[in-house]
């Protein structure tokens, strides 16, 4: 039923392939197809996995930008399925799971989320990480797999480091609910260490398998240097604006 709803929504709305970042992603993907490496041969503002995905897709399905819109659309379908699976693992009724998944996908189409080029991939692996912890809670392998998935999410967009921090904080607090009863705080802290260690594997895999260097990649992705300072200032200023807005509306 979910796939039928997704198909109907896809056919019902006029897709306008306009996104200010689309040309940038496509151009970097073409540079990769030409043999260049992000951060080494071409400057990039984001972590690089999305460029490689687009490059592979453009190689397999050559053509216009609409083909990339189709790829993003399919990733949203996958995310809707993952949302339903997460709900199911949290003991939500099947009908409610279907409603939540359909609501997620409907909001994507109605709000023209299919034009977002980057975040859908980031969300996919964050959902996979969450699902891993919900399926297997007490196994170190679950924490390692979850950390690896979060590492891939970070390599799609570096802001997923905040998701990693959120996962760590939730584990300290004892999420999922059974974790507090089944695992000691020491065991949960050990799981967090495993998760963080696994999360850096995708980054070092990228550095070791390409011409990129560790320092240049960290600077390009905003983990070191002037971009890191800029991201920190932007985040602080944005938080200040939101708090000021909430204060003004509360008084």
Structure commentary:
- By secondary structure, the chain is mainly alpha-helical.
- It has a domain at 221-251.
- 75% of the residues lie in helices and 0% in strands.
- It has 13 helices and no strands.
- α7 runs parallel beside α10 (185-199).
- The longest helix has 26 residues, at 225-250.
- It is globular.
- The relative contact order is 0.10.
- The mean pLDDT is 78.
Specify the helix fraction band: over 70%
Measured on Cα atoms, how large is the radius of gyration?
20 Å
Number of helices: 13
SS content category: mainly alpha
Described by strand count, sense and barrel closure, the largest sheet is: none
Question: What is the overall pLDDT average?
Answer: 78
Quaternary state of this entry equals single chain
Give the tally of β-strands: 0
DSSP strand content: under 5%
Distance between the termini: 47 Å
Shape annotation: globular
Keywords:
mainly alpha, 0% strand, 251 residues, 13 helices, 75% helix, globular
Could you write a compact summary of the structure shown?
By secondary structure, this protein is an all-alpha fold. It is 75% helix and 0% strand.
